[in-house]
User: Which sequence fits this backbone?
C-alpha cells in the first residue's frame, strides 16, 4: 500500500540522465541539492545508459538517476531546482515520469524538439494524437 509509505498525497518520480562527461559533477550537485532541501527518496536507482538515436528518446549515453519522493510543495520546489541542474549539465528528464516540467525547460533539455514538432506537423498527427503532456510541452 503506497499510502503507508508516501502518505495520502502520494509520490512523484523524478528521473534524469546526464551525459558521461558531466555526470560526476552533475550527480554530486543533484545529491547535494536533495540533501540541502532536507528531502529524502525512499527509492533511488543509478545506472549507466547507452546511446539512442530517437528524436525524443530518454536513453542517451550517460548516467541516469531515478528518485521517488513523497509529494509536497517542498518537493515541487526541489524538483524545479533539480531541473536547473540537469539543464546546466546537458541532461534531460524521462518524459514518462514527468507531470510538471515547463515548456521552456523541456526545450532547453531537448535540442531535437523542433525536428520532432516539424515531423508531427507534416504528418498530420499533431491535431489527432494529443495528451496533456504534449499540450503542456507544445509537442
Assistant:
Amino acid at each position: 500500500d503506497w499510502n503507508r509509505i508516501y502518505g495520502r498525497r502520494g509520490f512523484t518520480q523524478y528521473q534524469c540522465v546526464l551525459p558521461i562527461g558531466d555526470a560526476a559533477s552533475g550527480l554530486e550537485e543533484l545529491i547535494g541539492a536533495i540533501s540541502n532541501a532536507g528531502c529524502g527518496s525512499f527509492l533511488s536507482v543509478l545506472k549507466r545508459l547507452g546511446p539512442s538515436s530517437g528524436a525524443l528518446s530518454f536513453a542517451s549515453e550517460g548516467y541516469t538517476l531515478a528518485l521517488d519522493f513523497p509529494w509536497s510543495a517542498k518537493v515541487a520546489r526541489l524538483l524545479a531546482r533539480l531541473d536547473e541542474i540537469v539543464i546546466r549539465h546537458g541532461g534531460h528528464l524521462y518524459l514518462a515520469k514527468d507531470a510538471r516540467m515547463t515548456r521552456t525547460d523541456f526545450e532547453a533539455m531537448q535540442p531535437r524538439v523542433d525536428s520532432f514538432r516539424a515531423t508531427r506537423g507534416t504528418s498530420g498527427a499533431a491535431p489527432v494524437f494529443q495528451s496533456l503532456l504534449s499540450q503542456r510541452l507544445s509537442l
Remarks:
- The chain has one domain: 2-99.
- The chain has a mean pLDDT of 89.
